[in-house]
Amino acid sequence: MKSRMTTSMKGSSRLSLAIGTACLLQACAIPQVTDRVADTTLPAQFADTAPATEANAADVDWETFFEDPNLSALIGTALDNNKEAQILLQRIAMAANEVQARRGEYLPSVGAGVGAELGKVGEFTRNGAVERGIEIRHGEEFPEPLANLEAGLYASWEVDVWQKLRKATQAAMFEYLASVEGRNFLVTNLVAEVANDYYELMALDNQLANLDDNIAIQRNALDVTRELLNFGRANSLAVNRFEAEVSKNESERYAIQQRIAATENHLNLLLGRTPQPIVRSSDALMQLAPKMLDTGIPSQLLSNRPDIRRAELELAAADLNVDVARANFYPSFELRAGVGFEAFDAKYLLDTPASTLYSLAGDVVLPLVNRNAITALYKDANAEQIAAAYDYEQTIIAAFADVATQLAALDNLEKNYALKTSQVDALNASVDVAGQLFTSARADYLEVLLAQREALEARSELIETRQQQMSAVVNLYRALGGGWR
Questions:
Q1: For residues 29 and 329, is the Cβ–Cβ distance under 8 A?
Q2: Are 71 and 420 in contact (CB under 8 A)?
Q3: What is the pLDDT of residue 142?
Q4: What does the pLDDT look like over 130-140, one tens digit per residue?
Q5: Are 342 and 355 in contact (CB under 8 A)?
Q6: Residue 158 confidence (pLDDT) above 90
Q7: How far apart are CA 261 and CA 275, in angstroms?
Q8: What is the per-residue DSSP string for 10-62?
Q9: DSSP state letter for 295
Q10: Beta strand extents in 97-216 (DSSP E only)
């Protein structure tokens, strides 16, 4: 007895040693790859004009940031109805389902089954001889054909020794969180896009009003020229030139109206509804003063920008996927068990312990030969990790550049607007002077036309500059990571 136990223990030791040696050789045979650690170093401040402070406009929710009630109502409608946002919600639900599926993989699987079978074996076969022997011993004929009924519980469990299944679940969780940040990033861009379209509509309305005012001035000049023609103080060429200028500006009205229609339709698309008029406060555009935003410090972008957080989570998932792919080189362990009843006749099915069956089995599977598939998956996972690290770095760099660009735009547009205002004032005065000189025959009609045209263009550029200022404020708010809260 002792000798048998010693022999059994020696056999177990040899098996354990063999498995351990195989695992060691397998680990040594794993291809070498390079993991990349992302560089997240950022400057201390965005620009000399933006001192580093803890206050950050990104912490302000959009309902507080936008003070125009019409614009706030439009943004609220967009967040409720936008179709792309609704699609992303379904993507998030799918990612959550993937987490649930991965979590279930490392838990035991238990199922119940009921089976029935009917068959006849040949009399001169092994099974046939066994049945014949039973008949002889018990004096009872074996049923023919022979039925087999069974019912029981079955379980299987892959033992997660290398943490492969748990890390796959963690990776799925990170991917789920990344999808949530992806929706937050869409919300940030959606808020900014709605606001930019709204300010563009206000600017187009002002452009149309400016054009109408200019057409009225030119019509008045045309009437004066016709009067002067009747008195012989002007010629028909002047009348024709003024008529052409009026027609040119009237045709421009339709081009602006088309731009208004296109912008309204695009804004309605963002709102998730069919084309309809957009309520807006266009008269207030030129009285709006661009906000001075607190930019905070560059490192706050890492927590405020949803696209950076999404890239960070995707990088974390990629790191875990490398570990999951590496675990495929190690042996896998699976336990299987079953318990139930089995009999050839229903009346014996619950006859215990005669009809009771049970089983317990364990498998150890170690890939040894032709590991090309798992090697390729491992290299792919490593390449994905490196790509995710580069994407994370690129996202951070792009975010910093985005903020710096909008800060420069605000500074330059402010100076531009001040000079444009002076230009418009001077040109408006020149239109009045040119008209008076033309009426008194002390100026040529071309001087009047040139003064009116330059004044119209300058006022249009002033309106456009104001719109660009408001858009730069919105874009800086978005670049800092505001709008999704």
A1: yes
A2: no
A3: 66
A4: 777 766 665 66
A5: yes
A6: no
A7: 9
A8: HHHHHHHHHHHHHHHHHHHTSPP----PPP----S-SBTTB---S-BGGGS-H
A9: B
A10: 109-119, 146-159
pLDDT of 217 > 60? The answer is yes
**332-369: b or e for each residue (b if 16 or more CB lie within 10 Å)?**
beeeebbebbbbbeeeebeeeeebeeeeeeeeeeebee
pLDDT reading at 231 higher than 70: no
Rounded Cα distance between 457 and 246, Å, is 15
Gap between the Cα atoms of 129 and 270, Å rounded: 80
Per-residue pLDDT of 282-311, as tens digits, reads: 999 999 989 888 888 888 888 999 999 999
Q: How far apart are CA 471 and CA 384, in angstroms?
A: 37
Query: What tokens does 450 get?
Result: 């040139």
Cβ-in-10-Å burial (0-12, 13-18, 19+) of 456 comes to buried
Look at the pTM and tell me if it is higher than 0.90. no
Quick one: angle between helices 69-81 and 164-230, nearest 10?
A: 140
Cα dist from 356 to 155, 335, 347, 362, whole Å: 17, 20, 13, 21
Task: Return the half-sphere exposure (C-beta side, CA atoms, 13 A cut-off) of residue 385.
Answer: 22
Query: How far is Cα 436 from Cα 116, in angstroms, rounded to an integer?
Result: 109
CA 352 to chain centre: 60
CA 122 → CA 125, 232, 343, distances in Å? 6, 129, 20
Number of neighbouring beta carbons within 10 Å of residue 93: 12
Q: In what order do the strands lie in the sheet containing 146-159?
A: 109-119, 146-159, 332-343, 356-365
Q: What are 251-255's contacts with CB under 8 Å, separation 24+? A: 252/211, 253/208, 253/211, 253/212, 253/215
Q: Of how many residues is the chain composed? A: 485
